[in-house]
UniProtKB/TrEMBL annotation:
Record keywords, A-Z: Cytoplasm, Initiation factor, Protein biosynthesis
Source domain of life: Bacteria
Name the record gives this protein: Translation initiation factor IF-3
Biological function: IF-3 binds to the 30S ribosomal subunit and shifts the equilibrium between 70S ribosomes and their 50S and 30S subunits in favor of the free subunits, thus enhancing the availability of 30S subunits on which protein synthesis initiation begins.
Domain Translation initiation factor 3 N-terminal, residue spans: 17-86
Any single biological process term in GO: ribosome disassembly
Taxonomic classification: Bacteria, Bacillati, Bacillota, Erysipelotrichia, Erysipelotrichales
Amino acid sequence: MAIISKYNNQQTNDDLVNEKIRFKEVLVIDQNGDQLGVMSRNQALHTASNANLDLVCVAPKAATPVCRIMDYGKYRFEQQKKQKEMKKNSKVVSLKETQLSPTIDVHDKNVKLKRTIKMLEAGDKVKVAVRFRGRQLAHIDIGQKILEDFVAECADYCIVEKPAKMEGRTLIAILAPKKK
């Protein structure tokens, strides 16, 4: 007697359900959570079909693979619901960038400072970069001073996740928003 699952077209590749289970013996748990003991695969499939439910392998890597008798459609629905809930509750933090130069004027710096503070208040991380061009590389200390001042003015809204470091022709620091 072959048991054909009505869920075959919806399965993901890693789901072991009914006929896809290829172990000789499995530990069977019924729909109420009671252990029925170690059975042959065919006997477990027969038990599941008598209950009009599916045999789902929940722990294939155990010494004796564990299979559970349950409604597979309901199980998949619950798993998808959990994944959606986890996705909804997770906050995606994006990395925004603010570019400065060693010759930046006070007003321009204040405009970029306000914009950076808005990004931090929105919960985004900010990468502050000071780009050096040509002969400006001879005066990295000026760029470091500008970056230190910029970070000091943002100190109420952020913590320094990665301190200032030269990467090529750019001095970079990463700021993360403070927890509220």
